[in-house]
Structures are given as structure tokens and as C-alpha cells.
Amino acid sequence: MAPSVALDRSYLPRHIGIIMDGNGRWAQRKKQLRTQGHLEGLKTAKKIVKAASDLHIPFLTLYVFSTENWKRTAEEVGFIMGLVKQHLKAELDFYRENRIRIRHTGDPGGLPADIVRELREASEDTRSFDGLQVILALNYGGRDAIVRAVRGLLASLMDAPETAGPTDFIENSINEARLRQNLDNPDIPDPDLIIRTAGEYRISNFLLWEGAYAEYYFSDILWPDWTEGDLYAAIATYQQRERRFGGGKP
Ligand code: IPE
Ligand code: IPE
Ligand code: MG
After folding, report:
1. CA neighbours within 13 Å on the CB side: how many for 33?
2. What is the DSSP letter of 29?
3. Closest by alpha carbon to 98, among 76, 130, 124, 125?
4. I need a surface site. Which of 82, 92, 176, 179 has the fewest CB within 10 A?
């Protein structure tokens, strides 16, 4: 059943990003292992994906594992990777039923080969689905994404050198549009709404380029305790915001 918060269905965010934080604290409060928190967090992620899908939100980016999360214990990292793999294998029917397309953002280079394979297979198997697109940010860092985009752009320039003088060359070759073209998923629009749970007020390297004009929403609730109603409340708040994009008050 849909939550009772009234939403304007004609003004929904096209792209929502979520920093799903607080799994460890949730478990610690319950005197359980941190890994139990990740297990619960995954259940919440599925619930929120379904709610976003039912709302016909086109894009949802979930921050699953950052380029900095390798600093955690080998046990915790291994557990999270195992969860992702298991989930991608087990949930294909759920994605098929809801016509959800799975995509990845982040550096595949630093990920275990079996995870890269599962991500690629899930992306391939769901490629034709026209519903919600879920972008899994895995081994993702906003700075790393920009560095990889610059590398991609430079590599393409070396393949096709332009003939104008050096100043023109730099200005014509390196600009916002071209850098964007070299991000992981250039076809996906910038996020309209970025949510962070668990009472932290920071970005932690999430969507640095794409989030330039996102609306930010911070929730004190730990991710495993998040519900569809919390998603609706975040969207309702977004709908109250006045977006100006630097253009001044209308
Ligand atoms: C978010 O929860 C999940 C990941 C970063 C993988 P945390 O594991 O960061 O939980 P807290 O912040 O320690 O409570
Ligand atoms: C951000 O949460 C990364 C994910 C949710 C995957 P962290 O828990 O890693 O961020 P910090 O360390 O609190 O900034
Ligand atoms: Mg955290």
C-alpha cells in the first residue's frame, strides 16, 4: 500500500541518489555484528527500489560501496561484496517483473572479477527493460569518476588530434560537455534529489560532478529503518523547494 504522504505526481524527481548510511550503527545498537546491518540494509534497498519503481521514477542511484570503503576490515568488505553478488544473482525475477534496468557506476578495475561479471550480466539481462533504472555505485568515488573521465577524454583526443593552435585546442577539446560525455553513464540526467540517511551531513565523495544543482535531503533515520514513507517524505520536501539554478528568484 502506498504511504499516506500526498505527492504531486506531475513533479517527481527524475533522478534520485541515495547515500544509504547507518547500517553499522543499526547493528551495533542491536548488539549485533555490523554485517547484520548490511543484510538489513539490502532489504531496505529492495523496498525503496520497489517504491521508486511504483512511483515511475526514471533513475535511482544507490551508493553501495565507495572508493574509500576499502579501508574497512577484509571481513566487512568481503561480506558486502558477497551480498552484492548474491543479490544480483537472486533478484533477476524481481527486476524482470518490475521491468527494472540495472546499471553500474564506479571503477570496475578495482573490483573482484566475479563481481564485475555479475554486474555485467545483470546489466545485459535487464538492458531492454523500460522501467526504473537502478544505478549501483560500487567502487564509486566522485573524484575518481572525474579523473577517469579526464583520462577517457585525453585518450580520445590522442586518437583524433585536432589541428588548431594549442590554446584553441585546449579550449575546444576540454569543456564541460566533453568531460560529461566521458563519465560512466553520460545519458543519465543529473540527480534532482540526493538523500543521505543516518544523520550525517556530508557528501562522502558521491556524485560530485552530477550533484552540482541537486536538492539535498538529510534524514536522521538509519538506513535499515528507512521505509517507503521516508522516501515519500523526502520527495514531498523536494517538491516544496524552489530550484533556481543560479537564475535568481523568479
Ligand atoms: C553504509 O552503512 C553502508 C556502507 C558504507 C557500505 P555504514 O556501514 O557506513 O554504517 P555506519 O555509518 O557505520 O553506521
Ligand atoms: C558513504 O558512507 C558510502 C556509502 C554509503 C556506500 P560512509 O559511511 O562510507 O561515509 P563516511 O565515512 O561516514 O563519510
Ligand atoms: Mg557510514
Report:
1. 8
2. H
3. 130
4. 176
Taking the model in full, what pTM does it have? 0.96
Ligand 2: nearest atom to the Cα of 20: 5
Mutate which of 42, 66, 105 for ligand 2 pocket (most atoms within 8 A of beta carbon): 66
Q: Annotated catalytic residue: which of 8, 69, 114, 185?
A: 69
Strand ranges inside 112-196, DSSP E = 133-140, 193-196
Beta sheet of 193-196, edge-to-edge order? 101-105, 133-140, 59-66, 15-19, 193-196, 215-218
Q: Which triple of cell numbers denotes residue 247?
A: 537564475
Q: List the beta bridge partners of residue 103.
A: 135
What local confidence, expressed as pLDDT, does residue 159 receive?
76
- The domain limits of the chain are 15-141+191-239
Q: Specify the pLDDT at position 1.
A: 64
Q: What's the grid cell of residue 40?
A: 538489513
- DSSP-derived letter for residue 110 is G
What per-residue confidence (pLDDT) applies to 158? 81
Q: Identify whether 69 is a catalytic site residue.
A: yes
Q: Which residues line ligand 1 (CB under 6 A)?
A: 20-25, 65, 69, 80, 198
The protein residue with its alpha carbon nearest to ligand 2, atom 3, reads 66
Positions of the chain with pLDDT lower than 70, given as ranges: 1, 160-165
Predicted local distance difference test score (pLDDT) of residue 171: 80
CATH of domain 15-141+191-239: 3.40.1180.10
CA 50 to chain CA mean position, Å: 15
- Identify the pLDDT of residue 161: 59
**Protein residues with CB under 6 Å of any ligand 2 atom:** 19-21, 63-66, 69, 200, 202, 204
